[in-house]
Amino acid sequence: MAKGAIGYRCSECGWQTPRWAGRCGECQAWGTLAESSARGSSLGSGLRPVPALAPLGERAAVPITQIGAEAMRHRPTGIAEFDRVLGGGLVPGAAILLSGEPGVGKSTLLLDVAARAAREGLSVLYLSAEESAGQVRIRAERTGALHERLLLASETDLGAVLGHIDASRPELLIVDSVQTVASSAVEGFAGGPSQVREVAATLIRVAKERALPTILVGHVTKDGQIAGPRLLEHLVDVVCQFEGDPHTALRFVRALKNRYGPTDEVGCFEMTGDGIAEVSDPSGLFLSARGDPVSGTCVTIAMEGRRALPVEVQALIVSSTAPNPRRVTNGLDASRVAMLTAVLERRAGLRIAERDIYVSTVGGVRLTEPAADLAIALAIASAARDQPLPRAIAAVGEISLAGEIRPVLGGAHRGTEAARLGYATVLDSRAGSLRDALARAFSASGTPSPREAG
User: Fold this and answer.
1) Residues of 87-102 as b/e, b for ≥16 C-beta within 10 angstroms?
2) Which CATH entry fits the domain spanning 297-443: 3.30.230.10, 3.30.40.10, 3.30.70.260, 3.30.1490.270?
3) Which of 297, 308, 374, 423 is the most buried (most CB within 10 A)?
4) SS3 call for 322
5) How far is it between the farthest Cα atoms of the chain?
6) What gap in Å lies between CA 12 and CA 229, rounded to an integer?
7) What's residue 452's pLDDT?
8) What is the pTM for the complete model shown?
9) Is residue 443 within 8 Å of 417, Cβ to Cβ?
């Protein structure tokens, strides 16, 4: 727009247009365009002045070999599973975004992180914009997270938040959550795109300037995406997602983005009455505790990040009394189970099309990778024959429509973990076809035999 010309600017995302429109062309919000002039005066939200650049001497480029990296080393939080996801711990100046469903345990985990850091001698500032200080104190008392060096404040204004940072000079900052803090310098409601952008950018700038590790809690939308503008995920250094089934106590923390470490690590936790506890060896969480082998069960080795976990698949087949036999799944993709059922009937000669089939995983875990195909097929075949598989057998492999067993990623790591857990026989792509794998599985005795593959 020419100087002094009148245009329109979105109060949510800052998009500008010379003509008025009912809907923003950038964020698609209705009724957010307000009249604005290029000089900066407006009826809605004015254009903000460009900040002055620092003198060249203060920001001159230097050879990369002269830049020290010692100050950017990881510092452990005291929670090994969280450190695993972060790549070793907190990095000075790092901005970390932790998102998750409501009630999954984000605040409980971060309160534990804050308390452990305080016990290590760090000054920690925990800013709660969702709960009062009294509510946070009650949770901290229940989980044993009380410490004199853990400072607590309840604020929703960005200016007040910055004031607390200046006054306390913390060595670790936690803001819960970034969508509930608002800046008076920006139009729009808290949680809107423009507010989230301004609040996050300001806190990240403070973190970089002061080498202050900062953890921001983020809300998610109903489809599981991080609420707010996509820019938020680009601004931060680390994006972690806190996952968990509300019907089980198990929780997973996985890194979706990490500038200081790998993005394929997963941390395991368990929610208890006293807070959240680490699960350093989750190998027994997804296995049943029965004594004797039961028909319709088979174990697979699933990958959660870099972790190989044994997961038991259970199947039950009964005679159907309905015109259309039922296919019920829990923790598995229903269409994948239907496909494997068809392959079993066509390629392995198993007559199960007219029977009710129920397939589930143990412990509430969800299997989505094709590596579980062979274990699902063996569990269904075992249930159909009412013949249990030996307990020393684990199965890993993708099954094609032609009945072939295809190799999967991480096969060697899965085989090593299976051997560590006592599975003497691992059926995988070396078995050849589904028919051959079924023959080998049901001909094996209950006595552990030498490992056939893996």
Assistant:
1) bebbbbbbbbbbbbbe
2) 3.30.230.10
3) 374
4) coil
5) 87
6) 10
7) 33
8) 0.75
9) no
C-alpha span between 334 and 340 (Å, rounded): 10
What length is written for the chain? 454
Is the bond leading into 177 cis (omega within 30 degrees of zero)? yes
CATH number assigned to the domain with residue range 72-280, chosen from the 4 options 3.90.1150.10, 3.40.250.10, 2.60.40.3600, 3.40.50.300: 3.40.50.300
Contact 105, 273 (CB under 8 A): no
Tell me the two tokens of residue 246. 């509300």
DSSP three-state, residue 207: helix
- Which residues in 400-427 are b (16+ Cβ under 10 Å) and which e? eeebbbeebebbeebbebbeebebbbbb
In the structure encoding, which two tokens stand for residue 143, read together?
């989980």
Q: Per the structure block, which two tokens stand in for 394? A: 């684990």
Instruction: Kindly tell me the sign of the dihedral angle through the C-alpha atoms of 430, 431, 434, 436.
Output: positive
Q: Which residues contact 86 (CB under 8 A, 6 or more apart)?
A: 74, 77, 96, 238, 240, 255, 258, 260, 261
Lowest mean pLDDT among 118-127, 155-164, 227-236, 251-260: 227-236
SS3 content of the chain, % helix, strand, coil (to 5): 30, 25, 45
Inter-residue contact 275 to 257 (CB < 8 Å): no
Mean confidence (pLDDT) of the chain: 86
DSSP class of 352: -
Rounded to a whole number, what is the distance in angstroms from the first to the last CA of the chain?
Answer: 66
Distance between CA atoms of 157 and 169, rounded to whole angstroms?
18
Distance CA 233, CA 445 (A): 53
In this structure, which amino acid lies at residue 8? Y
Question: Which residues have a Cβ under 8 Å from the Cβ of 39 and sit 6 or more positions away?
Answer: 3, 4
Residue 1 has pLDDT above 80, yes or no: no
Token look-up 């699933």 returns 302
Give the Cα separation of 23 and 407 in Å (integer): 51
